[in-house]
From TrEMBL:
Residues 168-268 form the Probable transposase IS891/IS1136/IS1341 domain. In the N-terminal section; belongs to the transposase 2 family. Residues 280-349 form the Cas12f1-like TNB domain. The lineage of its organism: Bacteria, Pseudomonadati, Pseudomonadota, Betaproteobacteria, Burkholderiales. This is Transposase. GO terms for biological process: DNA recombination; transposition. It holds the Pfam family Cas12f1-like_TNB. It comes from Pseudoduganella lutea. Keywords: DNA recombination, DNA-binding, Transposition.
Amino acid sequence: MSAKQNKPATHTTRVLRLRLKDKHATALQAMARDVNFVWNYVNDLSFKVWQRERRFLSAYDIDKYTAGATKEGLNLPATTVQAISKELVTRRIQHKKVKLRWRVSRGSRRSLGWIPFKASALRYRNGQLLFSCLDKPLSLWDSYGLSQYKLGAGCISEDAHGRWYINITVRVEKAQRSEATSAIGMDLGLKDFAATSSGDKVEAERFYRGQEAALAIAQRARKKARTRAIHAKIANRRKDFLHKFSTTLVAGHGAIFVGNVNAAGLARTRMAKSVLDAGWSTFRTMLQYKCDDAGVWFDEVEEAYSTQTCSACLARSGPKGLKGLGIREWSCLECGAAHDRDVNAAKIILARGLARLAGGISSLSA
């Protein structure tokens, strides 16, 4: 292996999300309708080929059918049409489906606007973005200073409140490994959002539950704008909480381990509202990219039997079964150590995480 291959990467990829001015909404909505048309066409095309030939089309195969589409009235860059095909194939594989959901352009079930693009379709000039097929440049609140980055691929997206954002991938210098030396394990839950191996607990915020009554009133009154505003408020509050908590964790630790709780599986049970309100998957995603950016070690650890295993002697003597779920404190039958159920689970997650490193960061202290 060459020295160049052994050299560690000095750059990483980040996604910058910036708000676009509302005056572009009409033009972007028109482009989003064209995107939906292309998506539905290639989705249906792929499904029909599978029905006839029992094979899936690749993005390269689909591009042969969409070649020249932008010359027939579609107000989209050719690279955007290619990006749509690539995204459809990626999501079809991810969700293991033969046909994906139809994108709706009008009515109460309208899909939120989405316009993917490749790097060649976008240029930055004098505080604005020049986007192919748009007559006027896109004005935005440039809170990151885009002039200092080389812009890559991304997408323009709409939120539930009708506001438009541009999401751009950029390359940034990779941070040096954090100087923090402590390691922490976390057990995610519903009553408490997280219990840590240090004995702390973070209370779960009821973002959706707190607005559920107001949301029901708005929905019964058929006030769509008010309903969208409440949903946006819930999402913003949840995101703010998760960002602040994850940033605090990354700033104070050199290694972070989280249990691999199956959020998607629990979201299909009677606890669905509470699970989705907690935002576990979003939180772990935030931790992962923030740790990577700050040079902090992050890992998701198998949490099976973590609430039953004694963190002092590792004997599996804790409460078991459905009846044992209500027991929040217990004492080990082998060594007599007293445990808080969630804090003990966090300690087990920490121990398993450190064990997986096999001495790779032996200087870290719990």
